[in-house]
Design brief:
alpha/beta; nine-stranded mixed sheet; 9 strands; about 35% helix
């Protein structure tokens, strides 16, 4: 049987990360090992100032911030590619080597794709037969989507509350 491979997409601030976070909670409650990482906002004075990357059960780092002036930029954010790689790449490796794990990758987007090692590692994960749920930036280049063989689900305000349980059932069937 083929293991589920799912890409979640949506406009920013629709709830992709919330769906992945809730799915991780449901899987852990069902004693399913969860590997991978979450990207989350850094909020300062009520405004988004950057992004973190955090391995499930592991390391966390700030990967982008508005105040950073060196390094590559995506929009108004300076991106620390080495900080991202120190957390995300080992997290993907653990997803590949942990027996029975579900891989959750949040997200495959412009900041993450600044890492030359990231997309190849993601492609390996999707081709390895590991069950994977990943979020992908809505405007991600079509060439990226075309290289990942997976079911594409759009997160909407209408489906986002039920989606974690629906995905849990699919991944644990």
């Amino acid at each position: 049987m083929s293991r589920p491979r799912i890409l979640l997409t949506a406009p920013p601030r629709t709830g992709k990360t919330t769906v992945v976070r809730r799915l991780a909670e449901l899987l852990r409650a069902a004693d399913v090992p969860v590997r991978g990482f979450l990207s989350d906002e850094v909020r300062e004075h009520g405004r988004r100032a950057g992004f973190t990357v955090e391995e499930f059960g592991g390391r966390k780092a700030v990967m982008a911030h508005v105040s950073w002036v060196t390094g590559p930029r995506i929009g108004r954010y300076g991106v620390n590619v080495p900080a991202f790689e120190r957390v995300a790449l080992p997290a993907i490796d653990r997803a590949l080597t942990t027996k029975g794990a579900v891989a959750l990758i949040d997200e495959i987007g412009p900041m993450e794709l600044l890492s030359p090692a990231f997309l190849p590692r993601c492609l390996t994960l999707f081709e390895a037969g590991v069950p994977v749920v990943a979020t992908i930036h809505q405007r991600s280049h079509p060439a990226v989507r075309s290289r990942i063989e997976a079911e594409l689900i759009t997160v909407t305000p209408r489906n986002r509350d039920d989606l974690p349980e629906t995905l849990r059932r699919l991944l644990t069937a």
